[in-house]
Fold this sequence. Notes:
Chain B: Belongs to the binding-protein-dependent transport system permease family. MalFG subfamily. Chain B: Keywords: Cell membrane, Membrane, Sugar transport, Transmembrane, Transmembrane helix, Transport. The structure holds 3 protein chains of 3 kinds. Chain A is of the alpha/beta class. Chain A has 19 helices and 16 strands. In chain A, strands 1, 2, 3, 4, 7 and 14 form a 6-stranded mixed beta sheet that branches. The longest helix of chain A is centred in the first third of the chain and has 19 residues. By secondary structure, chain B is an all-alpha fold. Chain B has 2 domains: about 45 residues, no CATH class; about 200 residues, MetI-like (MetI-like fold, Orthogonal Bundle). Chain B has a two-stranded antiparallel ribbon with strand order 1-2. In chain B, helix 2 packs parallel to helix 5 and helix 6 packs antiparallel against helix 7. Chain C contains 22 helices and 2 strands. A two-stranded antiparallel sheet of chain C has the order 1-2. The longest helix of chain C is centred in the middle third of the chain and has 34 residues. Chain C is elongated, with a radius of gyration of 34 Å. The chains are: A alpha/beta, B mainly alpha, C mainly alpha. Chains A and B meet through helix 3 of A and helix 4 of B.
Amino acid sequence: MKWLASGLLCSALLTSGLTLAKDYTISVVAGGSSDADSYRTEAIAMAADILMREAAVAGESLNIKVEQRSYNNWDDFKQAVTLAAESGKAPNIVVTGHEDIAAWAQSGLIVPIEDYISLDSWPVNNIYPNLLNIASYNNRVYGLPQDAEARPFFAWKDHLAKLGYSAADIDAFPDKIATGEYTLYDMLNDAKKAQDMGLVEPGYGFYPRVSNGPDYWQFYTSFGGQLQDPQSHRLVFDQEAARKTYQFFIDAVKMGVTRKNHIGTPWDQWYAEVAHGKAMFWHGGTWHYARYTGKEGLTDFFGNIQFSLIPAGDRSGKANTLTHPLVYLLTDQKNDDVQEIAAKLIQIASEPRINTLHAIKSSHLGITKEQLNIPLYANNRWAMEATERLLPYASAMPNDTDFGNFWNIYWKGLEAAWTGQKTAEQAVKEAVTELRATMANSVIIR
Amino acid sequence: MRSAKLPFVILSILSVPLALMYLYLLIDTFTISEPGSLMPRGFTLEHWRFLWQDLPGRANIWQVTLNTIIFATITTTLVLLLSSSAAYALSRLNIPGRRILLGGAMVLHAFPSVTLLIAIFLILQYVGLYDTIAGVVIIKASLELPLGIWILKGFYDTVPWEIEMAAIQDGASRFYTWRKIVLPQIKPALAALAIFSFLASWSEYILPQVLAPGNHAQVLSVYLAGLIADDSHFDMALFKSVGLFYVLPVFALFLIFQKQLMNMYGGGTKG
Amino acid sequence: MNKSTSLGPFMLSPALLFVTLFFLLPVVMTAVFSFTTMSTATGITGGRYQISPASLRVLAGDYQLPELARQLGQQRYHIDDSGLNILREEQENTELVDEIQQKLSGQSFTQRRDLERALRQLNHRPRNVRKIKEIAEAFQHTVGSEPFDSADALLKAIQDSGVTLTESEQQAVIKSSYTGWHWSLENYRRMVSLPDTATALFNTLIYVLFTLMLFNLGFALCLALMTHYLPPRSGAFFRGLWLLPRISPPVLYVLLWKWVAWDTGFLSALLANFDVAPRNWMLNSATNAWVFIILINGFVGASMGMLIFSSAIKAIPQTQFWASDVDGASRWQQIRYIILPQLRWPILFITCYQTLSLLASFDLILLATDGGPGGTTEVWSLKAYHTALNNYAGNLQYGYGAALAMVLVVMGLVLSLLYLRVFKFDRLVSKPRIEI
């Protein structure tokens, strides 16, 4: 009997290690998030609750405290996170744009999430594969997508009708754009007509985004530009496409349908104007739906606004949209146990039900196929229509350490052309000079 | 003197925009007005709600205020302590390399200090003070020191040296003489420097913004800037109320110590 | 005698320590950084060695070793005895190793994920994802794309994978796979060759020149002269009023200007009575932005000149004014023949001093327009800040930002030395009079 007792004692001692309470504090920080995006961090808190319950059921004791913080803008957030990570004080989980992955992975600020959770496990195996690709770098999946989106092109229906489009025409508008029949220049002509008829003020015919953003790559794509070479994965700068893009904005200014100094208009003014029919055509993001119908008080969205892909620029390009998913990233904490807990939280937070809360509250799109079967998502007209009409045609920006500089240069040229400081040819020439000076070999200039 | 009418009229006209700005800062925080109209419609305290309830997604205003007070007072104390002793040494004692040190203080005083942010960040990170109030205090104080030393040295120079001579001949030590006899002589200068440093720290925005972005170390300037940057809650009256709350101590100090401050600003600072 | 010589350094040292550590050292470091390729991607404290698609591109392109790049880029996991032996030494779970031997022996996988999948099918598989990865690593027969902490570790891994390198190939692999920063003159070359450097310089020139001439000197002089001719009380009132912008914290002060310029703000509301459409007056055109930037900075800058000129005018003996009053001189003649000649030095001082301050200041511009619209108001110091601390794709350019800052540092040094020359520095540092 003695050996039995000692055996029991031994096993009791061995297993008691498992029942010791483990305390973790996991901090999650989100960038570019306002109230509507609160579930970016709250989902992690919900996940912590579930994980603790799972542990309790399995007879383990686990305590997780989640610290949440959201930054409203991107600049301060990226500055704070990079510097904090550099000094070893990074938050455990970061919610940021996928374009940060390349630089942060190379410097070791973040670790691949696939080292901690299996990609075959639920719900990761249900995430749209192209979104997982967007969250990868160097053949490693670094993060899980937190939301998807698309950036639609908008038109004010009432003005379209006054221009002479029938109800059937207006309904067919998205298809005409998708097939490339209706181009950006057709749009400029319509915008000019609308201004001449007095439907909108001068400069409001085509009313683009008021600050630099991923949106401006869509026009480059519309004119047949390509961002990344599929074989060598190098960045591509297509001079012809860039010239046409720059020229398009110059022409829009020349026709008087877009203001020369449009960039820098305050966002709140812009939102109020487009949500109340002050503009004929504009472009934005799927999340604008929340703003138009919420803060701006546009009650009947579908009755007033038609949305579609960004039209093609000419025959060489195609109608397109861009998706710029935010991702949950795992920072390097020099402690595998903590990282594993954080990874599991991200995994749980990506469950269809939890992610749907964010998708619907903030008017983003889902990340998993299964969300189409979640009533909250399925009953939301905006989410369903936008998913079907836009997401299949969405491209994303490449993950490349040089992309920040590349983007900077492209944008500077666009801005110089738009504000009339340079011709399209000059702007392209300068952009090429600058690209060669800053990233000689990593970019292909066509 | 002849009539002062003409300059008075011209000055009044030139000062209108400035006066209006500050007048409306006061009016808008207590009144309701239609957007785009300049006539207030009624009295309200609603814009001051941040004092008794936290704004969504923001730190607690009192915690932030406390941080700012801590930041400004410790910085001021540090600047006073270090510059009063260093300036005395430079003014009265023979130190090897004195010329260079003084010239250095002059040069540093006119230096684009903010351009050194990245390097400053690295040093703070190395000593483990990144994202702490202490770190920002040390940096702010170091950047203010050359000016403080330069100003105080000028004041020490005007203290008649017979006073010191007498004390030293009575057998007092040099250090004792400085503490008990010379320092009281430059009290007004110390007061001016204290007020000035306090205001400079109170207003500082870029250093805390970059070097202490965490919620726990937030100061009022960063809090207010964050509020303004959030375009989903655009509320000018609220911004102004927080702004007024933030600037009240500054105005109070300014009114009380106007004379000393005039001397100080005349003595030359950045800007 | 002794005491005094030791007391000096003793009283000076604390301040000296602070200034050296947190002011001078950053200057030196900035100079050092400006000769590196430092960015977020390279990290600050050093890098690692990693065979990544990017490094393979460099190897194939810059070093002309496409074949080697192809070899190193391969990934292969092969279940063989050597891997199994490693596992037997490491793992206590012998059943699992036996099962791998039994079911997977001889198989090859090109992706770690595929091998993991196979491992997860086993009966004795570990629960934990990390454990499965460890097991998979034992069968890795290529370099892989995991980072190594040292060049030697990387070379050893390459050797283990059966690729032999010549001396020059080794160097090429080490250089191309290093993720950290290296020394280079690239930043300065880039600065000289880029067109937007000239733009930033030009912007800085506009900003400094206009603000200085119109406000820090011109308007300051007006204020000083006019308040001089006012009764003391109202003079003091106006001086106090014009000091407000200087003592107001920048964040609040710029907010007040935004309120003036906003599309629902003061100007729009005022002009609505004259049927002018509301707009954002500050950002709606480049000219407007400049006007506001100069006004915002000028209102702050004028006060210092005002105070200095005022005290200089006060120092002029009153008898001179009385005498000229008796001679029947007009006020304008008084200003021209009495006041201005005596303001020569203060004017020179303000010019030098404020030039330096304006060169380095950018917080008001950052808060007001952030360099917009379209980069038209991005001055040099703001550009340095943006480069070093803001980036669209999370890749802050520390090195290039430091190089931009360095230009300002050098300018600041040269100008301040010049201005010490002009202002007879020697007079300021006469020897202390007490030597005991």
